[in-house]
User: What shape does this take?
Amino acid sequence: MNTFTQEDLIQYLYRETSVQKTAAINVALENDWKLRESLEQISFAQKNLEEVNLSPREETISKILSHISKKQGQLYPH
Assistant: This one.
């Protein structure tokens, strides 16, 4: 019996496993409820991560643009 890691399950979920490993995981999932539970937890986490919307604060963007503007002024004085 194979022992699969969380990394194996993540690769399986993203369809990055070989044909042989995919087949072995499929067989193991049929027989091992702990493995199925682990896959369900990883799948749940994946779905939650896909819903996260990240973006910088306006203050951060303003500081970056201000810094760039200052640097350009130093490189190309009027």
Observations:
- The first helix runs from residue 6 to 13.
- DSSP finds four helices and no strands in the chain.
- The radius of gyration is 23 Å.
- The chain has a mean pLDDT of 89.
